[in-house]
Amino acid sequence: MDHFYTIRFKKNTAQRFKRFSKKIGVTYSESMEMIIDFFEWHGFLPSDKFEKSVGKEVLKNRKRTEAAIAIIRDIEKNQTKPTTAMLQLLFEHSPQKKQGQPPLLMDGRKVDPERDMFFKKVEAAIAMEKDFTNIKLDFKELRTDFLNLLDRVELVKGTFGKPRLQLDMTPEDFQKLKIKMEKQ
Question: Looking at the domain assignment, is residue 31 inside a domain?
């Protein structure tokens, strides 16, 4: 059974609190619990100016969004660059056969600088595509490892102080992950 305890408030404050409790439709005790939980959960102090804290969160989110946009632009640029280069080399910039010239074959006897330049560009584009594919595979593996690590992070609310994050992982697993990251 819960016991009640009396706290003295100024009359205006008590009336305001009663109106607030009626508005949200709960008892006075539940209202006070919700208010306390709100401030503890979000890490605010009642004396803090709320607009500044919300403004900071908006700025943080804006910076995160801008960083995500920059990453996406970089991926688009680097992802399409090797493919575009290969397609341009193969379809647009291939050496044109001159009138009276033998077919452009790899085993031709004559040295053709234009043909050699074309094949060097194709080889370079293929190497770029291979490097990009390897980087993409490494990124996927790192992303998977990071997401697995994030899945093991839990929010812990203590009785006192701000909430904190706790990693639920054995020291052996953490050491293995650390060694794996250091090798890359």
Answer: yes
